[in-house]
Amino acid sequence: MKWFCLIVAALVSIPVHASAREAIEIKLTSKATKFPSDAPVDLVVTFTNVSGSPVRLLGYHTPVLEGIEADILTVSLGDKPVEYMGRLYKRAAPTDRDYLTLKPGESISGVASLWDNYDLAVSGTYSIQYKTEIFSPQSDKEFAVSNVITLDIEGREPRPNPDDLEDETKIVSGNNEKFKGCSDSQKSAIIAAREHALNYADDAYDYLVAGNVTSRYTTWFGAYDSSRYGTVRENFREIRDAVDNEDIKFFCNCNKSAYAYVIPWENFKVHLCKAFWPAPMTGNDSKAGTLIHEISHFWRTASTRDIEYGHSAAQNLAVTKPNKAIKNADSHEYFAEATPYSPYNPCAPTVTSHTGAPITAGWDGANCHVMNVPAGLTSFVHNNAYYVNALPGTSCPAPSGWDTANCYILPYPSWSTSYFVWSGNLYLTPGPGNACPPPSSFDGANCYVMPLPWGSTPFKHANNLYITPPPSCPIGGYDGAHCLVGTAPASRTAFIWGSSFYYSH
Question: CA 35, CA 41: separation in Å to the nearest integer?
Fold first, then answer.
């Protein structure tokens, strides 16, 4: 029996006249069926061109060159899929040099190590198949597949990545990063890239919290769907927090042609490779964007995968399979890079004033300065909004007047009456014949006196009707207790420093 792969251009390039189903046979074999906990679990994957024409395979979708470099196997324990724990690379879109060519009848093989790349912590019978998803507009179920083999594997801890074994004498600490094997110029480039990556992450998160759905979103994540949008927003919250706060370890010892790689369960270790150093600091496929891409892979952040590489493939993924786009690392990078790139203003999100009008903050070199608080006022933050204390008022709205203590309205008439508040207005019950003492007037049911100002209370004293003067707000508007000045952007944290309102970068 033969096992054949369904071929599309993303994985295999064949002449148009060749039959895809007859192009290549993929066979998975193992020298043993039982593996104790200290034994490597190495499988051989053999690709044979069974067509009459040359066939090209994408090299890093095979273990032929340097073992497993992507999630190319489907591994399960019983009916539960097993997590891929191997390297996730940031790569450029594939070019001719990334392909392997098989002549008719030619075979090539590679060794695929399960222990180094899949979670084998639990003892049991594992099923393994070479089964790489192929993404095309025509189908969600196109795969390159092999036979399925079953192995009895004794559980074991993952083997450490030899590239990041930590000789502490070679780890150099920065502010909230550490370096291994990095020159001074490389350290400077990494620190600058991280600062720009934080700007990218802030900008992306601000955009998503505001609920924007423009071509910037749809280009990389497809048509709007509230669930998918929420997933991307949460992904960028986690990415932003990691870029800003985590102690990231950078390793400058990768000689691969890729930009960088991470092992997703090893939070937060980033290996920088050859393509990283000549990349621009910002813009398309930049140093800063590479950090967004790699940090999105970690299980602690967004747990993205490398489904498609490059702008064209990522854009096509957004159109044809948006459910995959929201899991694709390059899609997150290109959205964050805001392609084409424009410099990020860290104080672009505006404060919403008490009137609903925007208040623009200014960058002070560390945070966003909103405004100075007038002297003599008590300022505070509540529910991410800025407040000051209200002051006793002396201004009385017409028809009331200030009597040095309260707002006098009218003397009660000789006939008995009472006052009440309804729908924000002050009323009196009318007298005989619907009589209403001036300055009140009959409205068909009661004696309308005046709108009751917010924060004011009516009362009767010495047979006269009064209201308490509304509290005064030197800035902001009275909310029934204090003066609301404005609300900070939802993606930022409001705070007070010195005598000013700020929000965090």
Answer: 7
